[in-house]
Amino acid sequence: MLRERVSEQRKGIAVGVLVGLMWTAGKVTVPWVVKQGIDNGIEVDPPDLGSIRLWGLMILAAGTVSAGFAGARRYMAFREARFAEATLRDQIFAQIQRLHFAYHDHTQAGQLMSRGATDLQQVQAFVVMIPMTISNAMTVIAVTVLLVLLDPILTLFALGALPLVNIMGKRFSTRLFPSVMGIQEESAQLAAVVDETVSGIRVVKGFGAEDAQAARLKTEADDVFGMAMDASRTRATYLPAIELIPNIGLIAVLAYGGHQILSGELTLGTLVSFNLYVVLLIQPLRMLGMIIAQAQRAAAAADRVAEVLSTAPRIADPAHPTPLPSKGPGLGHVTFEGVHFSYSDGTKVLDGLDLDISAGESITLVGATGSGKSTVARLIPRFYDVRQGRVLLDGVDVRQAPLTELRRSVGIVFEETFLFSDTIGANIAFADPDAPREQIERAARLSGAHDFIVDLPDGYATEIGERGFSLSGGQRQRIAIARAILADPRVLILDDATSSVDPTKEHEIRDALGEVMEGRTTIVIAHRPATIALADRVVLLDRGRIAAEGTHDELLATNAAYRQVLAAIDRAGELPEEVRL
Question: Can you name the CATH fold of 334-570?
Fold first, then answer.
């Protein structure tokens, strides 16, 4: 993945490298100019002040060039690095949204957040290093050539220890990688604990489980600390040696070079410039350890990001999609033909289900827990694919329909309501952000939400907190219903959408739903008898098949299994007296 990212940004990186080479040219020019100033201005008899001034100005000019291109090199490096980070973040965010429901069922949100934040920062830091590393490498090469030209024997003293630096660098890289990879993995686990605790803070506080979560966090934090200390010990072992070795060469240069000057075989200017060149080598060689460490961190992070980006969505647009009919009578016809389905754990949920829902018809799905009610709702918008059989919407197999078009045709109100940290109006208009105020208010009126919204301090402009927890459960569900109504789908699915509504207010929503359901294909998953009775037809599911169907009154009078399902609700006191067993 790193290679592909660098390849796509090769032009910008190449410009950064070119700027870095200009920085290198200015940098390596300074010692040569110093040599000329000493030998031609100071070491002559008498000293030539004019020559000293000239070469001093040359030093200033070379230093100015080096400083200017140093700033440009840094700017180009960070520009390309930030662009790489932003591009990859866009890609991973889009991929997270593309990935199928089953993937998200088994992947922690904290893990994905870590890949989209911490891991991408490591990749960004690596891209920063590319122009800088190349310019440093060119500095080492240029300085080495100049040292050989100045004095081959001194060069051997100065650079004789470099092979040892290379050996140390390789060992450093090999030993550091496992620790770096471990830090990335453990940091993701830590992020997952934080995300779960914050998202479930009401559950945590409700059960008084703060200490338990703190213990989980401490365990993960200790794991991160342990891995980080392993990496620190590796750095503490190898980096001092990598930094020390070039300085040993400098000592050898001073000793041998001083002897050469005393014997008249070497000029003072040559020795000074030679030492300056050796000093120029120290910083790039010192950075070698940092470059190796950063490359290891980036490689580990890139592997984790690539793991997400390379995951193929199981639910995707077909190669040759069949558009849903947009005109004609009776849009919203849903058919299940011999549908078999099981989740990834292998438990069979639907077992040859045959169900036909006419356009404009409303049905209620009733059944015991695990009978397949919610699964039916999830298969229509193709959150999951059937194992066998077909699900048709207006005569088109949902697996052949364009995914976006299909999901815009099916509106769902889930039992677990999720609202975004935005205004109430924006949450209702989620499917159509440009919807006019009149449509937003109409949807709110139909869902029974308008009255409580206008009583809020800022009405529809009221900002709600994360997940909408500043509102009651019933208020959140009414906003969710309004959101589905505004989307104006041809099929509306209400998955126990009135479960959190106060029974004293339920009749208001039932009346509103009756108007919304008129002429629209509607699938209601409900437990409350009054809500069940809203539908034209009741379908009783048992073990993934239809056990009975008819009106609420018919099934109540003739079907013992249906009465048994309702009897379970009776324990909560929700059934009217005449229905209780």
Answer: Rossmann fold (3.40.50)
